[in-house]
Write a structure and sequence with these properties.
This protein is α+β, with helices and mostly antiparallel strands. The protein has 17 helices and 57 strands. This is CTLH domain-containing protein.
Length: 1127
Amino acid sequence: MSSLSRELVFLILQFLDEEKFKETVHKLEQESGFFFNMKYFEDQVQGGEWEEVERYLSGFTKVDDNRYSMKIFFEIRKQKYLEALDKQDRAKAVDILVKDLKVFSSFNEELYKEITQLLTLENFRENEQLSKYGDTKSARNIMLLELKKLIEANPLFRDKLAFPSLKASRLRTLINQSLNWQHQLCKNPRPNPDIKTLFIDHTCGPPNGARAPPPANNTLVGGLPKGGAFPPLGTHSPFQPTAAPSASTLAGWMANPNPPAQHAPVATGPAALSAPPNSAALLKRPRTPPGSIPTVDYQTADSEHLMKRARAGVQPDEINYAGPSHPQTASSADDLPKAVARTLNQGSCVMSMDFHPVQQSVLLVGTNVGDIGIWEVALRDRLANRTFKVWDISAASMPMQAALMKDPAVSVNRTVWSPDGTLLGVAFSKHIVHIYTYNGGSDLRQHLEIDAHVGGVNDLAFSHPNKQLCVITCGDDKTIKVWDAATGRKQYTFEGHEAPVYSVCPHHKESIQFIFSTAIDGKIKAWLYDLLGSRVDYDAPGHWCTTMAYSADGTRLFSCGTSKDGESYLVEWNESEGAIKRTYSGFRKRSSGVVQFDTTRNHFLAAGDEFLIKFWDMDNINLLTTIDAEGGLPASPRLRFNKEGSLLAVTASDNGIKILANRDGLQLLRAFETTRSFDTNQVAPEPAVSKVGSCLSTICSNACLWLILIPTMQSGIEGNRTVDTKPRMPDDVIERTKTWKLTEIIDSSQCRSIRLPDTLPLNKVSRLIYTNAGVALLALATNAVHKLWKWQRSDRNPTGKATASFAPQLWQPPSGILMTNDISETNVEEAVPCIALSKNDSYVMSASGGKVSLFNMMTFKVMTTFMPPPPAATFLAFHPQDNNIIAIGMEDSTIQIYNVRVDEVKSKLKGHQKRITGLAFSNALNVLVSSGADAQLCVWGTDGWEKRKSKFVQVQPGRVASSPVGDTRVQFHNDQFRLLVVHESQLAIYDAAKLERLRHWVPRDSFSASISNATYSCDSQLVYAGFVDGSVGVFDAESLRPRCRLSPSVHIPQGVSNSTVYPLVIAAHPVEPNQFALGLSDGGVQVLEPLESEGKWGVGPPSDNGTPTGVPSGPTSGNQGSDQTPR
């Protein structure tokens, strides 16, 4: 449906609402799917009108559309089911269970079973998780709050929750205007027209006198000025006739694609652009349109073209009535992203930024030392980073090799995403363009290396001429070049500039594709893809560095530039006339650098100047507002909006980036942080790639093509250019590097620490995991007994989350039974315990050398047992997409893929030489990684369970030549690509796709003992490691550099020898990134957190650029479902 047809639906909705057709209004809302009336939805939920609730929802989403939709329908049907149980209507409850809730069983069979078990209870509140269920009204209100959050986060409801801002009775107004115009076209209009129907066009009968205006009191026609003139056609209609375009104007050369290539010199004047030569004829154009113009109701491709011309066209001078004003949908300064929501540290000066066109919070960054980085700003997580290097030096041209030999320093001039976000381009200050493919997360791969220009490549853009994706570049060699984005083959070279080309701006009007280019001599040229030379030759205000950019809808053209004297200009162009339409005020007289700008929402402009961010309304030349982003901005900060205009990235003076957000932006960031928590405790997520990119694509709306350019300075420009050399490390940073010391915590008073109360016999803690909800800790001791500690909600702990500030309760069911594994015919001392927890925390699977047992976490009862030894199970991991599939590592070195539902081993994987000690699934790569006591890593494809790669843990220099032996654990980073490998001899980070080691750390200095266990923090920013001497280390996960050391005295009771007690296992809280728990060899369990005044575990040593390693990040919920939380 076209945009005008969509707007017509809104007008009809407004009309129906004003006329009190309430049922019809909501029926149209539901059938059109354009506007979700939250107030109506709330009323239906609070009234328990469940059929209407689901019917209304069906116009916007279905159960299986995405994880948000699934949870919305689940919560509604669960509430309906509980209400039936509360009324003791078992028959209705069974009907709801079978007809409405059965659909969710395929996603989470265990949850469905648990819901079914409620039928067996006299009162479903006997279930601990439902013990606080109140009355029906309060339960509905609580559920409604959850539903509103889910709806607001659901991408299918984006742009459907707010009704457009319309004047009252807008549809009647449009009808009045149409009748006015029809009356204007009457050959002999009557002074009092008799309008009786809207079904046919209005005409007046033969008159007896001269033409006269309709009276102002006609209720259908509406008020008109006394002068009698009717509104000109261009005021209210997109169907204004246009004169034949001149080849010397922008409209002309687009309509006449082959004019002479040469152009006469441009006359000087304030606008620096010539007026169309036929402007006199345009002004004398007759007021009444020809009768041949057809009547068109809604916008077509042709009428859209005419409408664009009408916006910029000149109205006849004899018309003295401009008609009533109808401004665009109201926007205010409150819509601008002004709140500092995130601060990132790239480590070097940022030269260019671009938000991903689909994943709204993924930011691409390029720096003055040639680095590029990809950030997930919601989590402050740097997903990928690449330093500059020539991929194939043998293919490089001699001028390029000579330039790099003379001065190897390289800067990024431009970074930009392709329209669909699958490619990204990087333009460097020396010759080269790099094109990468991007598949989300950290999956950034080399695609093309192009030796593009002699000298610097100053700008880069993507475009689709002839429906083929191309890369457009410009450079110091005064040329613009077009390259095939798939092959790198050069397609066009445009020559004609007399100075280095500073920027390019590709665009299209209907089927006409063209490129604007600007050079440092201030010349603007335009090119078609035909090698016939430039079509226009104008002077830009300032006559120096200028960039051009269209508004997001492609209808308005702007440019921003700075002169050599530091005077900055921000202007809008009238394309039809080839002249400046308006010049915006508000710049200081002398800018210290080239001012950068961007546009958003088809309504606002933003530029960085005077250590501020300045905003303008596109329709007002005066400054709208300014912000300083809490200070710390450079003189001319670079800036970039995301597609929706809800986030604004701004460079900071300390090599940082500030992310500013408006209300929608804050909601976007919160939605991403909470996305992972929505799928844990009720309904399992839909089978989908779970890497960071996919989470975001769920939150964000569909892509649209952005061709907004960010000016970047280039080599070869004297004056304000940033020097293309590596920055010198400041003296104070060098001093900090020299004086930095590892944070040492030697006493429990220096952190928050609590030893969990225990009334049961103490045995070594062999396995330890948090529940996925983060409210309890589950330990498995060497005597095969499980212990469960739960934190209770209270005024001091309102969330009920695990904390070191309050003691939990060692929980047991009313029956008093213990959750104990099968150990018949098992030597407990030699057994290798293993444990895994279901996503909803309802079931735990465990073994201690005997059969594998499945326990109910509420009753501690054994649901079933399977896999009797030999061989015994040594490691367990639930499949992330199907809780019925379990990977079981065995003592005989095999891995069995077991289906619990059908009690059948689906596959048996062989590749290790000793028992299995670790398993971790990756949704992003569709692989299972295994580790063994043979210190070998194996990668298995989860589609056919074939072995893809294997590699032994690498031996460190100076050690024995053979492979190390001993238990090896594996755990995926949140990005699902990087893999933490833990061995007693080292910590290592691997690229799981290639099984290549990226970095490693070996015990030394303050950490000289062997490693006993290690795990990622829940946000994958830290690594917690335990050592056999009793100490604990906190490491930066990116660099594996130690940040903090906890002495054994912090968590080992007084009077106990440190040499005999040490952490056997370590577990990270699933929500709080700075909380972890230790399972000790003396049977104790300790929870530790930093002091509230500190907020984190120490500070990492300064990196090479002088900034502390590790950036604090918001928590994400990880899957704590198996030993050591493999992700």
